[in-house]
Write a structure and sequence with these properties.
Helix content: 25-40%
Order of helices and strands: HHEEEEHEEHHEH
InterPro entries: Pyridox_Oxase_N (IPR011576), Split_barrel_FMN-bd (IPR012349)
Strand content: 35-45%
Number of helices: 6
Largest sheet: 7 strands, antiparallel
Organism: Actinoallomurus iriomotensis
Number of strands: 7
Radius of gyration: 19 Å
Protein name: Pyridoxamine 5'-phosphate oxidase
Structural class: alpha+beta
C-alpha cells in the first residue's frame, strides 16, 4: 500500500476519532514463533503511533528480532468501527517517563489529587521506558456502513457482476 493511500485512510473522520482512543491491540510474533496480541496504551502524534513500556517488557526482545506489528483500534458499539494498521516497530530507550505515556494515561477520569498520586507512583517505579513507535505502512478502516471487511467487499462485487451478467 503506498503512503498516500495510507494517509487517505488515516485522514478519514472515523479514523481520526479512533486514533484519539488510548487503547489498541498490538499483534507481533513472540520469540517462540507464535503470535501474540496484547492490549497497549497508544498516543497518535499525527504521523506515528507511540506506545510506551517498561525496559524489561517481554515483548521487546521479540520486537527487536521481528519488528513487524499489526494494530487494531476499535469501538464497542454496534456497528463497530475498526481501524487496522500495519507497520514496523522502532524501539527507543529513554531515560525518565516519555511524555506520550503521561498523555495517554491522562485521558482517564482522575481528580487532581488522584492524578498527582498516580504521577508520583509512575516516577517512583520507572527510571526509564521504551517508546515503541510505529509509522503506519498499511491501513484499513471498517465502519460496516461505508467500508466492510475485504472478504465481504469481494463477495458483494461478485454478486453485482452476476446480477449484471
Amino acid at each position: 500500500m503506498n503512503q498516500s493511500a495510507v494517509d487517505e485512510v488515516l485522514a478519514r473522520p472515523i479514523s481520526q476519532e479512533l486514533l484519539t482512543r488510548d487503547l489498541a491491540r498490538m499483534a507481533f510474533v513472540a520469540l517462540d514463533g507464535t503470535p501474540r496480541a496484547i492490549p497497549i496504551g497508544i498516543t497518535w502524534n499525527g504521523s506515528e503511533i507511540v506506545m510506551c513500556t517498561a525496559k524489561n517488557a517481554r515483548k521487546l526482545p521479540a520486537l527487536r528480532r521481528n519488528p513487524a506489528v499489526a494494530l487494531t483500534i476499535d469501538t464497542e458499539a454496534h456497528p463497530p468501527k475498526v481501524l487496522l494498521i500495519r507497520g514496523q516497530a522502532e524501539l527507543d530507550v529513554v531515560d525518565g517517563i516519555p511524555e506520550e505515556y503521561m498523555q495517554w494515561n491522562g485521558t482517564y477520569e482522575m481528580t487532581p489529587e488522584q492524578r498527582a498520586e498516580w504521577e508520583a507512583g509512575v516516577q517512583a517505579l520507572y527510571d526509564g521506558m521504551v517508546r515503541i513507535v510505529v509509522k503506519p505502512t498499511w491501513a484499513k478502516l471498517i465502519d460496516f456502513e461505508t467500508t466492510l471487511p475485504t472478504a465481504i467487499e469481494e463477495l458483494m462485487q461478485q454478486q453485482k457482476q452476476r446480477q449484471s451478467a
